[in-house]
Amino acid sequence: MNFWTLYKRELRSIFLSPIAYVVMTGAALIQGAGFAVFLALMIYQNMRGYSILYACLNAFVFWFTIMVEAPLISMRSFSEEYKMGTIEMLLTAPVREWEVVLSKFVSLVTFFVLLWIPVALNVAYVYTFSDQKFDLTWGMVVLPFLMVFLLGVFFISICLFASSLTKNQIIAAILGFALIFAIFCINFLAYLGLSEGARQVVSYLSSLSHMDTFSRGIFDTRPVVLYLSGTAFFLFLTERILEARRLRS
Fold it and tell me: What average pLDDT is seen over the chain?
């Protein structure tokens, strides 16, 4: 009951913020423009055996969008509570730290999923009404969106942790983006002269490799374990920070 009440409170606060509508509008425009460009390119070049989702979700515009979305929607989660002084009221209420963290996390994930619905609708529209024949399997549709979801929850957990460290929203957004970008830069280590064992580790941690695999309709359990474990780790750190703050107060 406490979680459900806190979840509704957090979701309401998200949609009362003008940042939410700025992010929704920007995401829809960027995703729509990228989808239209790649679709036109595929039709013009008569590309076969190549999913439109593969083209969109492996492009720079996708990674830029998801790496910016997570910090923007998460930066006010705890920072605003600290700034307004409402965190003390929340922590002294009969709720547990994990309920506070999970309510904020699940509300942000809910909003994140809403941001990607236009892409799903674009895909459904194209493959339903287009006369152009595309080679596509269910795996090539479902698995890319699964990877988007996994990346989203992982990045949101990182940014939620960043927001719990400061009462300044801008600093929280910058810190969250910096952590995400540092993790993303692991992809580029593959271009260095690494040993075979090091290359296998980099391949296991490479988000680009994971998206490429899932976009081809190939399911791999390792990225699922990696991102869910990472999400749980950062949520645990956030809960520890809240508990320490409660003890200090």
Answer: 85
